Amino acid sequence: MSLRRKKTVACPKCNKESDYLFWESLNGDLDPEAKTQLIDGTFFQFKCPHCGHECKVDYGMLYHDMAHQTMIYYVSENSVEEIQKLFSDKDGESGFLIPRYRKRIVTNQNALREKAIIFENELDDRVVELFSVK
Ligand SMILES: [Zn+2]
Questions:
Q1: Ligand 1 centre and the CA of 85: distance in Å?
Q2: Helix axes 125-133 and 109-120, enclosed angle (nearest 10)
Q3: In Å, how far are 39, 73, 77, 79 from 82, measured between CA atoms?
Q4: Domain range for residue 73?
Q5: How far is ligand 1, taken at its centre, from the CA of residue 41, in Å?
Q6: How many Å lie between the centroid of ligand 1 and the Cα of residue 52?
Q7: Into how many domains does the chain fold?
Q8: How far is the CA of 15 from the centre of ligand 1 (A)?
């Protein structure tokens, strides 16, 4: 299931308000179009309907890829600990306890995109991380 919420945002250029769709969670299998946008880097794009100004919107979200049994939580640095607790919930009360799922926490949009691409291509992200250090 994907969770979306429409919110009013003000354009940084013309200051006029418009609706923008924020995704609290994105299920890549149920919303392939949004998943494609995430992978090609246009997901967080905002285009002002009044003046045409384009910019990136930044907010945390959960990306869920059922086909590849992956969850990637994009959060701000100061929420990492909280999400780690959710992900390691032993009693399963959080609903995050799914066996065999790969769960990752990232703190920037690039990392979210990178991991989504890696899992989409069925690579092991730990190996890729090892290589990208060199
Ligand atoms: Zn504008």
A1: 40
A2: 120
A3: 26, 11, 10, 5
A4: 3-133
A5: 21
A6: 6
A7: 1
A8: 6
pLDDT digits (tens, 9 = 90+) for 47-95: 999 999 999 999 999 999 999 999 999 999 999 999 888 888 666 666 6
Sorted by sequence, the CB contacts under 8 Å of residue 41 that are 6+ apart come out as 113
Residues bordering ligand 1, an ion, CB closer than 5 Å: 11, 13-14, 48, 50-51, 53
Q: How far is the CA of 8 from the centre of ligand 1 (A)?
A: 13
- Alpha-carbon gap, residue 114 to 39, rounded angstroms: 8
Give residues with Cβ within 8 angstroms of 23, minimum separation 6: 2, 3, 4, 34, 61
What are the phi and psi torsion angles at 130 (to 5°)? -60, -40
Res. 115: pLDDT tops 90: yes
Residue 122, amino acid: E
Element (H, E) at 84: helix 80-87
